[in-house]
Write a structure and sequence with these properties.
The chain is an alpha+beta fold and 267 residues long. The chain has two domains: 36 residues; 223 residues, Lipoprotein localisation LolA/LolB/LppX (outer membrane lipoprotein receptor (LolB), chain A), CATH 2.50.20.10. 23% of the residues lie in helices and 42% in strands. It has four helices and 15 strands. It has a 15-stranded mixed sheet that branches. The longest helix has 33 residues. The N and C termini lie far apart (76 Å).
């Protein structure tokens, strides 16, 4: 038995050496890419995330969206326009590249218009048209927060204790505000990697992960977003093919005139 262990020692040493080398390489690659990991305090994180949110005036782009539910999968090509005031415009394109479904939200109302069926939904700016049209329970404000990564602009949120993962170069923390609780992981550059959003009653509403950050103007922006709704067994993937930040968007983009002959949808 002792001889067998002695014979196996060189193999064990080699395995440990290789494993240590892999960890060392991963740490070296992380440092080369993002710089040495520095443990941050709550004040630094709050300030950096606030600055990141304040610098983001507008988002405009073209995205491929996949909605995978328990029974089917839908693929949509979407034009997305968002500004910091909560105004939004989404245009779903048909196979010929022409807009067929419009969702427009401004400070007073939300309108969804289906040009193929010539039908529309209209309500106050807090109307949850996504729930009506797709069954996904997500407000217009939540849509903006996810795409703009705006989970940190509330002035009255409290922050929980920080945890740090040096190998991954990540920091984790919780924030709580009037809307509920969020569990957040950011990387060494203060970029959000994942956010778990909980309602006031402690039930999870959704979680979002951010990936494939790339330079867009003077900022880094995630070109892939995965949003999961565990209670509904729905996963939404947003992949930006084109993305522009802080380009001027005319106010007319957030105004939609419903055709006179369009039919209202009762809900």
């Amino acid at each position: 038995m002792i001889k067998q262990v002695v014979h196996q020692l060189p193999l064990l040493i080699i395995i440990v050496f290789i494993w240590s080398g892999l960890i060392g390489c991963a740490t070296t690659l992380f440092r080369e890419k993002y710089g040495p990991f520095v443990e941050k305090d709550s004040a630094q994180i709050r300030e950096q995330l606030k600055l990141r949110t304040l610098k983001l005036e507008t988002i405009s782009g073209l995205a491929k969206i996949t909605i995978k539910g328990p029974h089917d999968t839908r693929n949509i090509t979407e034009i997305i326009l968002i500004d910091k005031n909560g105004n939004m415009r989404f245009e779903s394109l048909n196979p010929f590249g022409q807009p067929s479904v419009f969702i427009v939200r401004n400070e007073s109302q939300v309108i969804m218009y289906d040009s193929i069926k010539n039908r529309y939904i209209k309500g106050g700016n807090d109307l949850n048209v996504l729930s009506i049209s797709t069954g996904i329970n997500m407000s217009m404000d939540d849509i903006r927060r996810v795409i703009a990564q705006d989970f940190f602009s509330s002035p009255d949120y409290s922050m929980g204790p920080l945890t740090h993962n040096r190998e991954k170069g990540e920091s984790g923390f919780t924030i709580s505000d009037t809307m509920g609780r969020k569990e957040v992981i950011i990387d060494n550059r203060y970029l959000p990697l994942s956010v778990y959003v909980y309602k006031k009653n402690g039930v999870i509403a959704y979680n979002v992960s951010y990936d494939s950050y790339r330079p867009v103007g003077e900022a880094l922006f995630p070109t892939v977003m995965n949003v999961e709704f565990p209670r509904q067994n729905i996963r939404v993937t947003i992949k930006f093919e084109e993305i522009f930040l802080n380009e001027k968007i005319g106010k007319d983009k957030f105004i939609f005139r419903i055709p006179a002959e369009a039919i209202p949808i009762q809900f």
